[in-house]
Every structure is written in structure tokens, then in C-alpha cells.
Design goal:
- The chain is an alpha/beta fold and 357 residues long.
- The chain has a seven-stranded mixed beta sheet with strand order 2-8-7-6-5-3-4, with helices on both faces. Strands 9-10-12 form a three-stranded antiparallel beta sheet, covered by helices on one side.
- The longest helix is centred in the last third of the chain and has 20 residues.
- The two termini are 35 Å apart.
- It binds pyridoxal-5'-phosphate (PLP).
- The site of pyridoxal-5'-phosphate (PLP) has 11 residues, from helix 3.
- The site of pyridoxal-5'-phosphate has 11 residues, from helix 3.
Length: 357
């Protein structure tokens, strides 16, 4: 099996060990004579998988018992609706938003359907190259929402921002890449397809005392109902939850989140090293705001882009095309991307710069 180095922003690379295990178990799951993908979500085999995914998430991310772990549909996009639906008290309820890029801006805009977003800081004037230093959080907000890592613009909070209200973190692109203290957060949400699995399941970690019955919330996004129903309010994405369990087990066996963090720092250093050497231009220059996970960058001349991407492709490096709002290129270095992949990318970057510089 020829596997390329994949720098896609998501869906993205899965660990080889996970792929191989899923392949070996795909057609027949544990002597059932059927694939897990064909089995009832109410049956013993899937129930065991669901429980294992929960337990492994709790163990690997060190999630305390007073936090619920929910598996829901709709992606992080859905959580931009689900968060205000569950945590705000209604359309006039003020909720604070930090806007530091594409995704946090979209969450604030979407929130306006269900609450009164108060944008307490917005770094648009720096073209989302920086993190806000200070802001005023009103006393009466239901929560403060931010994006831990801006996947498009490449800015990352190295530590949780200060908040008086419960902190809501979109960790779609950074979950399990860095050790965090779950107690710093009211809600953490993440689509699985970047660091912890495949598209189709969204993980929501929520402090239980924030969960209130919300009869008007769509039932699949009603935290109280999903908690009560063990995340099986509708047919869950059974295969994605199975993949999630395999990835969490892989992270655990690799040395846990601490090992992912160490590797993540190494990979970022290798790639930024090549990008900062002169030829390329990074979107984010401030080292304190730079993402370890998504690195948007530009060639000195856009007319080189097609040649750069084609050459990368020929060298077995895929997924480097930038997001449509920024253009240029982007390298995404999620958990399953190895240090060897980062080195191969750095070699290509240096080689291309030498040839075209
Ligand atoms: C990918 C991403 C999203 C959107 O996720 P979907 O699963 O496509 O809904 C939202 N926020 C961040 C930070 C992301 O990286």
C-alpha cells in the first residue's frame, strides 16, 4: 500500500495502525459474521464500542466525572448553533465571542440566530494574524466562546483566554494535540475528522451543571437529551465512533496527549524553519500567536502556485492548497502526521525555494 504524506486540513490522515486494524475487522467484526457497520446501534457489539470510545476519551483527555462526553452529528458547524441553544437563555441573552479568524467569526454570526452575541474582541484589523491582548467581558454573558486554533488563518491560543463566564472552546483542529486542563472550560467541542478520527461524529465535552432541559433545541443537539440517551437520540454514526475509539487507543499507546504535544511542537518547528528561511511568507509572523497545527503560507509570486502544488504532489505530498479565503498554501500537521512527513515537507520547501528563488 503506497501512502502519501497528507497535509489536508480535514478530513485528514489517519494513523496507519488504525487503518490496518479497521481493514482487518471491516468485513467481519469479532466473529459476528457481519461488519460493525451493519450491526444495530442497540446491539451488544456497538454498545461496547460506544462505551469504549467514551472511556478512552475520558482517560486520554483526563476528563473529570462531572463533565459529560457526548457524540453528536452536525460537525463543529452544528455546535455553533447547539452552544447558544443549550447555554443561552433565549434570543435576548447576551453571549460573548472572541473573533480571531474564519471559524470564530462564523460562530458569532451563527449565534445571532439564538442569542445576542457580544463580540468582545475582533482581530480583523490585523487580517487575523494576531491574538487579542485584552477585552472587556460584560458580567451578564452566558458564556465566552472562542476558537482555540483557527484552522484557516493559523492563529492559536497557547493557553485558554481569561473568562469570568464559562469558556466555550472550538477545539476542532487542536483537540488532543496539547495538554489542557478540562476544568478551565465549560464546553469543548470538536469535529473528529482532524485529530481524532473521521468526519461524521462531533465530540462535545460539557460540564454537567451547565446542561439544562431545552425543549426547543433540535433533539440531536439537545445536550440534556443526548446525555440521558447515551448519545443515541438518533442512530449514531456507529463506524465513526468505532474509528474514534481506535484513534484514542492509538494516542494512548503512543504515550498519550503529552507525546502528541511533543511531536506537534517538533513538526511545527521543522516546517516553520523551512518557511522562515526567506523565500516563503507566512500569514502569521508573531511566534506567540502561530498555530502549531495549521500553517498558512504564500509563495513570493502566486503564478508559482500551480507548479509548487504539482511538484509537491509528484513528491507524494498532498493537501497543501490553501483555503479559499486566504489563497496560497496551507500545511496541516495533525496528530497522525509524523515527524518524517514534516521533514519531507521541509525538504521539498527548501528544494523548491532553491530552484525558484
Ligand atoms: C473544521 C472546523 C470547523 C467546521 O467543522 P465541520 O465538522 O465541517 O462542521 C469549525 N471550526 C474549526 C476550528 C474547524 O477547524
Amino acid at each position: 500500500m503506497a501512502r502519501v504524506y497528507n497535509f489536508s486540513p480535514g478530513p485528514s490522515r489517519l494513523p496507519d495502525e488504525v487503518m490496518e486494524r479497521a481493514r482487518d475487522e471491516f468485513c467481519e467484526y469479532q466473529n459476528t459474521g457481519a461488519s460493525l457497520i451493519e450491526l444495530s446501534h442497540r446491539g451488544e457489539h456497538f454498545l461496547a464500542v460506544n462505551e469504549r470510545a467514551q472511556m478512552l476519551m475520558r482517560e486520554v483527555l483526563e476528563i473529570p466525572d462531572d463533565y459529560a462526553v457526548l457524540f453528536v452529528p452536525g460537525g463543529a458547524t452544528g455546535q455553533a448553533d447547539a452552544v447558544p441553544l443549550n447555554l443561552a437563555a433565549g434570543r435576548t441573552s447576551p453571549c460573548a465571542y472572541l473573533v480571531t479568524g474564519y471559524w470564530s467569526k462564523r460562530a458569532a454570526d451563527e449565534g445571532a440566530k439564538y442569542c445576542k452575541p457580544v463580540v468582545v474582541a475582533d482581530t480583523a484589523d490585523t487580517e487575523y494574524r494576531t491574538l487579542p491582548e485584552q477585552w472587556h467581558e460584560p458580567d451578564d454573558v452566558a458564556y465566552l466562546h472562542y476558537a482555540d486554533n483557527e484552522t484557516v488563518h493559523g492563529v492559536e491560543f497557547p493557553a485558554p483566554p481569561k473568562a469570568k463566564a464559562p469558556l466555550v472552546s472550538d477545539m476542532s483542529s487542536s483537540i488532543a494535540t496539547r495538554k489542557v486542563n478540562i476544568r478551565d472550560y465549560g464546553v469543548i467541542y470538536a469535529g473528529a475528522q482532524k485529530n481524532i478520527g473521521a468526519a461524521g461524529v462531533t465530540v462535545v465535552i460539557v460540564r454537567k451543571d451547565l446542561i439544562r432541559p431545552r425543549a426547543y433545541a433540535p433533539r440531536v443537539w439537545d445536550y440534556a437529551r443526548q446525555l440521558k440517551n447515551d448519545s443515541m437520540t438518533n442512530t449514531p454514526p456507529t463506524f465513526q465512533i468505532y474509528i474514534l475509539a481506535l484513534v484514542m487507543e492509538w494516542i494512548k499507546n503512543k504515550g498519550g496527549v503529552a507525546a502528541m504535544q511533543k511531536q506537534s511542537e517538533q513538526k511545527a518547528e521543522i516546517v516553520y524553519g523551512a518557511l522562515d528561511a526567506g523565500f516563503y511568507r507566512c500569514h502569521v509572523c508573531d511566534a506567540a500567536a502561530r498555530s502549531r497545527v495549521n500553517i498558512p503560507f504564500f509563495l513570493p509570486d502566486e503564478s508559482l502556485l500551480a507548479e509548487f502544488l504539482q511538484g509537491a504532489n509528484d513528491a507524494g505530498l498532498i493537501g497543501l492548497k490553501g483555503h479559499i479565503v486566504l489563497g496560497g498554501c496551507r500545511a496541516s500537521l495533525y496528530n497522525a502526521t509524523t515527524v518524517a512527513a514534516a521533514k519531507a515537507l521541509a525538504d521539498y520547501l527548501c528544494d523548491f525555494a532553491r530552484r525558484r528563488g
